[in-house]
Design goal:
Layout: E1 4-8, H1 14-26, E2 29-32, H2 43-56, E3 74-80, H3 88-96, E4 103-110, H4 118-125, E5 130-131, E6 135-138, H5 146-156
Parallel strand pairs: 1-2, 1-3, 3-4, 4-5, 4-6
Helix pairs in contact: 1-5
């Protein structure tokens, strides 16, 4: 039996909407990845900050942690696609735990770049995990993506 965790980092709320839709479809526990420092609210400012974090290879400090990660065998990882990949906060999260033998299922929100290189980056970070194909949802469509999410979960064999 699968014990499912839906872990997500959301800046504007779009990724949170997708995470909650996944939970509504299949159950599991939901976990929001939160950083100690907040991100700017304006699009251009957050994009600039995300680029600076990537260029500096920063690891933002997280203020939320999964206490029983070992108990989960399927982990959905949600994030906005920033500069073609996962936000650095998501990288901090992935480095914090041992995902060996676990199944990781990525999902992201974006405004045109899809999953970018995020899945291959997750595979590099978690080489002993089974990383499945992810789902990319346009952020501006997140609140209307329930059918796409349900179909994807059905294809994965994870729907109720």
């Amino acid at each position: 039996m699968n014990k499912i965790l839906i872990a997500y980092f959301s800046h504007s709320g779009n990724t949170k909407v997708v995470a909650n839709s996944i939970k509504e479809n299949i159950g599991g526990d939901i976990f929001e990845i939160k950083t100690s420092l907040s991100y700017p609210t304006s699009y251009n400012a957050v994009v600039d900050k995300a680029k600076k974090e990537q260029n500096a290879n920063d690891r933002p400090e997280l203020i939320s942690h999964v206490e029983n990660m070992d108990s989960y065998n399927v982990i959905f990882i949600g994030y906005p696609n920033w500069w073609g990949t996962i936000p650095m906060a998501e990288l901090t999260f992935l480095e914090e735990y041992n995902f060996s033998g676990k199944t990781i299922i990525p999902f992201c929100t974006h405004e045109g770049s899809g999953l970018g290189r995020s899945v291959s980056d997750i595979k590099k970070l978690c080489p002993n995990a089974n990383v499945l194909d992810g789902l990319a949802i346009r952020g501006s469509s997140a609140s209307r993506a329930q059918n796409d999410i349900s179909r994807w979960l059905l294809e994965l064999g994870l729907s109720k």
